[in-house]
Amino acid sequence: MLPEACLFLEEWEACRIEVHARRRERAERALAELQLRVRNAAASVCAWRAAAETRRKLAEVASGAAARGVEELEAQWRPQRQDARDGEAAHWLLTAERAQVAALGARAARWATALRGGYGQELVRRLQALDAKLGAEVVSAYKAWDETHQTTLQAWESHGARLQDVARAADAVMTPPDTWLSEVRYREKARAYLVVQHSAEKVLNLAIDALSALEQERAEYWVMFAAAYASAHLADTSRGAMPDMQAFAQLPAAPPLSELPPVLEAIEGRELPSMPSASGAVLRRLQAASQAPAGMFGGNPGWKEGATLVLTLQGYLHLFSMGKPSAQAKTQQETEPGQDDTNEREELVESAIVASVYVPMATRCVFLRRGKDLTLDLAEAEGVEQPQAPQGLNLGRWLRRDTGAGQPVPRRVYARVTNEDEFRDLEARCHEFVRHGQELRAGAKSGMSST
Predict the structure, then answer these.
(1) Is 439 part of any domain?
(2) Side-by-side strand order, sheet with 412-417
(3) Which among 35, 159, 167, 237 has the fewest CB atoms less than 10 Å away?
(4) Do both 98 and 213 map to the same domain?
(5) Within a domain: residue 397?
């Protein structure tokens, strides 16, 4: 059994891999069974109609042949017949033959009635359309599910490699990579995986529901078809040898309906727990306001609420500009109803980063208080080479230098905070990182001068 909750991402990823294997295997079996039942249903209806169609064609061909035989007989007999002698016998015989032709025509009409004017053809068409959908839409959804699973695995491996880089950077007195940013990337991929998984299973569930409805129609069609078939058969045999009445004393039961369970149901308690929201790589995370651009006619720029500041364990300060919840976030809320709808839901994505600063390398670190206005301004030197001695002190090595649209990420964080306690704590931590960076640079310079 899987744990009900995971405290660490490593545990959650292990659970995700296990649950993925089980859900994917079950979905694969459900798809195979669904395809088999759809094709069986279509083949059955086609076979029913083929039997009645054969009877109709036989009766139609016999009726046509009998009609041609009567006309040929009359054409050959008429010139040589003397009505005074054989007229009454000829009339009786030809009338009987024409009655047989009419009976054969009526038999063909009865079997055509058993086909019910093409309703079975429409049912077959819809079953074949569902089969095509299974082979295209559902398979495509499964492929996307597998691809996002592999992408999530790669993101986790990249995060693990980043954690190893931290240890090597500490030993070499180099700039440590931002493990929290790689964690954000992994969480983003993992959330996308859950959305795609839910979509793939939902598509399959819709197909299961569609088959259930078609199976209901097939059962109803069988009842009508069997009654028409029995009626036509009894009408045919009543004119000749006595039929086997016991065979048609009771109509056969309708075909059983499909009973495939919904794929989204739990797998014997082996369901994925909620993704842990806590992160040991985050020192401070607080709500903030970012500076809004100036208006069309100039003037002082205002402040835009809804931003988030994150200070990581390695000393990276990121400013996220959060907009309205994305469609992915809404779907995640549906797939993870137990998640708390707060700032700790880890809805941050890398593409929302509007500014980043590696605080130990900051050339500006200003925390300003003007009444209730609490603003912070941290920046690195733009376009200025970093000191050569501590070669690892290079933010560009670890931070993606664009926002995903080809634009460079500003290396200045300018924001406003409303909570005095959070502001004071962030100020103390940032000043500590700045002093640590100054000590590293001073130590590196003294080491170079001694050599």
Answers:
(1) yes
(2) 353-358, 316-321, 303-312, 282-291, 412-417, 373-379, 364-370
(3) 167
(4) yes
(5) yes
CB 411 within 8 A of CB 398: no
* Cα separation, 379 vs 399, whole angstroms: 15
**Can you give the residue range of the structural domain that contains 61?**
9-146+197-248
Q: Which among 211, 214, 224, 216 has a CA at the least distance from the CA of 49? A: 224
Could you identify the residue written with the tokens 């992994």? Answer: 186
pLDDT, tens digit, 9 for 90 and up, residues 342-397: 344 547 888 889 999 999 989 999 999 998 889 999 998 863 334 333 444 444 44
The pTM for the full model equals 0.70
232 and 326 share one domain: no
329's enclosing H/E stretch is helix 327-335
Reported as half-sphere exposure (CB side, CA atoms, 13 A), residue 195 has a value of 14
- Could you tell me the sign of the dihedral formed by the alpha carbons of 31, 36, 42, 44, in that order? negative
2 is a domain residue: no
Alpha-carbon span 389 to 163, nearest angstrom:
24
How does pLDDT run across 99-147, given as a tens digit for each residue? 888 888 888 887 787 777 667 889 999 999 999 999 899 999 999 999 9
